[in-house]
User: Fold this.
Amino acid sequence: MISYIEGKLLKKEKERIVILANQIGYEILLPAIVMDTLKTKAAGEEISFHIYYHQAERQPKPVLIGFNLEIEKEFFQHFISVEDIGPMKAVKALNIPVHEIASAIESKNAAKLKQLKGIGARTAEKIIATLKGKVDKFALTISDEPEKIRIAEDISTQMLNVLVSQLGHKGNDAKRMIAEAVKRNKNISTFEELFEEVYRGTKTP
Assistant:
């Protein structure tokens, strides 16, 4: 089973690309949030993806779905656990950043989830009922840029440890404080900036 692939961009279409790896061309479906990161990529450039491999009785032909980061793939696997959301529907639905979707789930914001392609009110409620409390870590991602997400995760994790271990906050409260800080200031890029924004939030009446 394929879980990761890297090679040269051979062809780019609306929802899929073909990547040449070891003289074999692999067709890979990409959610909109991933395809957007390839806007500046031209044929022949090196690219890589974490792969979700999908094959089922109703879908006997193997389908490869690509993600820039392991955390995006992990969120996708949570997302398709919701009733009536299979991999193919999920690929089309992911048209806004993962952290925004996760934040909407944790805050029970069904209106936000209805912005996802193909997701109506009933399915939005199913998503919340199934995933609330399970995707809070994805809501802590600070940056939308793939190359910065790993750093952002480290900053959020460090902040979470400080709030819980050193300042005595409960885990869920600490995660909420971080998520709210990130929502207030989307330009946070260092631990110090995140700490200041979290502290500012505690001073708000």
Observations:
- DSSP finds nine helices and five strands in the chain.
